[in-house]
Amino acid sequence: MPTSDSGSPAQRHDQLLGVDVGGTFTDFVFLRDGAISIAKRPSTPDDPGRAIINGLAEFGWSPEEVVHGSTVATNTLLTRTGAPTALITTRGFRDTLVIGRQARPDLYALHPQRHEPLVPQRLRFEVEERIAADGDIVTPLDLEQLDRVLDRIERGRVRSVAICFLFSFINPDHEAAAAQRARDRGFNVSASYEVLPQHREFERMSTTTANAYLSPVMATYLDALESRLSNDGADDVRLRIMQSNGGSLSAGSAGRNAVRTVLSGPAGGVAGAFAAAETDGFPHAITFDMGGTSADVALCPGRLLERTDLVVDDMPIRTPAVDLHTVGAGGGSIAWFDAGGALRVGPQSAGADPGPAAYGRGTLPTVTDAHTVLGRLRPEQQLGGTVPLDLDRAHRAIATIAEPFGSVEAAAQAVIDVVNANMARALRVISVERGYDPANFTLVAFGGAGPLHACDLADAVGIPQALVPSAPGVLSAAGMLISDITRDAEQGMHLAIEPDTRGNIATIDDTFANIAAQARAAIAEDGYTQGVDVEYAADLRYRGQSHELTVSLNEGHEAEAVRDAFHRAHRERFGFASLDTPVEVVTARAKARHAGYRGDMGVTQTPDGAGSRTAAVVWDRPRDTRICKRHSVTELVAGPAIITQIDTTVTVPPGWTAAPLPNGSLLLSRQAEGTRE
Fold first, then answer.
1. Which of 189, 338, 345, 359 is disulfide-compatible with 355, CB 3.0–4.6 A?
2. Strands in 259-294 per DSSP E
C-alpha cells in the first residue's frame, strides 16, 4: 500500500470520490486535481453498488479513493434480511433479548406489537460459566459443553455467532476463549467484549447480536463493491465507509464492525453541513437534510454532538453516532388519508422505483408532485440533470386526493403544509425540548428537497435565517469526502469520584492508556500510524442516577477535571449541578482520529441556460415569480423567487431574500417589515 513520508497511506486526493446511496438518488462528489464535480443518478435498491459502478462508467471517472455512505446495515435490520445468527450466553440469560427492559413503547396500545428478536429461541444457547461483578471467576467455562453447542450450531448450517457472557466487560477471559474456539471452527464471531465492553447486559447483547447479524451481509457487499471498483484487481482503489459517528473506516473494518455503520449516510450529511456552516461563519447551526425518503435534523451548538443510545426498529444499538433525529418525510413521501379522514404524508415513500408520479412512472401523490403542481419544481429543470418532470402526471396524482380541498392546487399546498408540520416537530425535538432557543441558530438546508422547505420551516420554528451550501443536493456525499478516519475504543468501569478527591486517579489513567492503545492499534490496521490524534471522553453520572452523559475529557482526566466537566455538562443539559454528590465514571472512551481531506469544497455553478425569467408560481396565491439559475445569482434576490441548479431547487417565498456568500452558499433571510410586499 502506498505510504506518505509520515508512514500513513498517501492522501491520494488527485482522484477522490464521496458517494452517498440514498433511497431515491445516489449522489456523487468527485475531486479531481483540485476541481469538484457533482452528479446524481437514480438508486438501484436491489443492488446499491450497481448505481455506483454505473455512475462511474457514465461519468468517466476513475477514483483512486472512494468514501461511501451505505444504507446496507440499516436496511438489513429494517427488512430482517441479515445472516442467520446463533447466540451463546451464560446459563439463565438466553431470553434477555426477549425480556429486554420490559418497557412498553406504546403504553396505551390495546394490541401492542413487538418485533421478533434477531435470534430465534431455537438458536439461543447457554453454557455453564459465571464471572462476578468484580471480575472474579465464580464458575469456570465448560469447554466440553461449549463444543457440543458449537456442534449443534454447525448442524443447523448457521455460520454467524454472537457471544455475550455476564460481566465479560470486566473480565473477558471466558468470552475470549469461547470466541477463539468458535473462530477455529470457521464461524464468523462477534464477541461482546470486542463489540461493546460496557455494562447493561441487554443493550450489550442486543448490539453484539446485531453486529453478528449484519457483518456477513456488509462484508459480502463491501468485498463485491471493492472488487468491482478495482476491476477485479486491475486497479488499486481504496474504499472507506462512513461510520455513524461522522468518521470513516476501511471497508475491511466496516465488514467486521457493521453495527457501527447503521447511520452511515445521515452522519455524512451532518458532518458536511456543519463544515459548510463553520466555513460561512455560522457555527451554531441546525442541520436539515431532506432527501427522497426521510428528513434528518441535528443540533450543532458550535460542535458536532454524539450519542450512544440508538434505537433502530425498537432495537437498542449502543455505538457512537452523530446525534440526529429522523422522520419519514422526503420528496417521495406519499400523501394518504387515515381512517378518520385526516391527510397524512409519509412515512411510506415512492422511493426510486417507481418514484414520484412526476418522475414518469409512479401514480401515488407525493411531496415532489405537490411542488411540481404548485410550480416550485420546474418541468423544464431536470432533477439531477437526468430526470425530467412530468407535470401532467403529477397533476393527475394530486387530483386523487383533491376532492376534500376543492382544487388540485389547494390539495398540493395541504400536502406541503402537513409535511412541513412533521419536520417542524422534529426541529423542536432537538432544540426547544432540549432547552435551546432556535432563534440563536442558523438552519442549514440540504438534500435534494431541503432547500424547497427551508424558509417555511424557519418561519414555523422561529429560526431567523437559513443557509443553503453551494451543492446542497449532494452535501452528504461531500461530508463523506472530507470525513476524518476514526476508530473508537471504550471500556466499561464503575468508579466513584468523591467531592473531596484530588489529583490523578490510577484506575482512570490506566483505563485511558489501555483504550487509547486499542484505538491507535485499530486505526493502524486501516493503515494510519502517524498523524493520529486521540480524543478522550467518559460516560458520567451522579451517584443514584440511572442515566449518563458523555462528557469530553480532552482537557484532562484528573479528579477535579472530571468533576468540573461533568458539572458543566449537567448544568447545560438539565439546568442544575449537584456539587456535593459523588460523580461516577461508567464508561471510558477514546477516539483515534486521522484528518481527512481539508481542501476547498465549494462548487462553482456552471452556466446551463438563460439566467432569469418570470413565471406564475402558487404561494399564498398565484404570483409572478422570478425563476433564475444558481450561477446567475450574484446579488440579493428578493422573493418570490425560484433558484434552480442541477442538484436541488431553492424556494425564496414572498417576504424572504437570498444573498450569495463568498464561499458560494446562499443566505436566506426574512425581509424587514417595511420592505415586504
1. 359
2. 284-290
Low-confidence ranges of the chain (pLDDT < 70): 1-14, 105, 232-235, 382-386, 599-611, 673-677
The structure's pTM equals: 0.84
Residue 174: exposure state from Cβ atoms within 10 A (0-12, 13-18, ≥19)? buried
**Which grid coordinates are listed for 14?**
488527485
> Which pLDDT belongs to residue 609?
54
The DSSP annotation for 124-161 comes to EEEES-EE-TTS-EEE---HHHHHHHHHHHHHTT--EE
Cα(194)–Cα(161) distance, integer angstroms: 13
Buried b (16+ CB within 10 A) or exposed e, 512-548: beebbebbbebbbebbbbeebebbbbbbbbbeeeeeb
Please tell me the distance from the alpha carbon of residue 46 to that of residue 443, in angstroms, as a whole number: 34
Nearest to 585 by CA among 466, 505, 471, 476: 505
Of 660, 661, 636, 641, the closest CA to residue 652 belongs to 641
Q: What is the residue type of 282? A: F
Cα distance between residue 430 and residue 407, in whole Å: 36
653-676 pLDDT tens trace: 999 999 999 988 999 999 876 555
Grid coordinates representing 223?
A: 468485498
Cell of 215: 457483518
- ∠ CA(598), CA(601), CA(607), 5° rounding? 160
Cα distances (angstroms) measured from residue 562 to each of 157, 357, 496, 511, 513: 49, 56, 11, 14, 16
Closest CA to 670 of 520, 460, 382: 460
Triad 122, 127, 132: Cα angle to 5°: 130
Question: Which helix or strand (DSSP H or E) is residue 370 part of?
Answer: helix 367-374
CB 196 within 8 A of CB 210: no
Q: How far is CA 519 from CA 194, 306, 510, in A?
A: 12, 18, 14
- C-alpha dist (Å) from residue 112 to 102, 107, 339: 13, 8, 19
The alpha carbon of residue 641 and the mean position of all alpha carbons in its chain are separated, in whole angstroms, by 32
Pairing relationship of beta strands 284-290 and 248-250 according to DSSP bridges:
unpaired
> What does the H/E/C string look like for 421-456?
HHHHHHHHHHCHHHCCCHHHCEEEEECCCHHHHHHH
Give the C-alpha separation, 378 to 358, whole Å: 11
Task: Look up cell 448450517; give the residue.
Answer: 157
Partners of 366 in the β-ladder: 334
Grid cell locating 418: 402537513
Residue 236 neighbours by CB distance under 10 Å: 12
Helix, strand, coil % (nearest 5) of the chain?
35, 30, 40
The three three-digit cell numbers of residue 477, written as one number: 456525499
Q: Which positions ≥6 away from 92 have C-beta within 8 Å?
A: 126
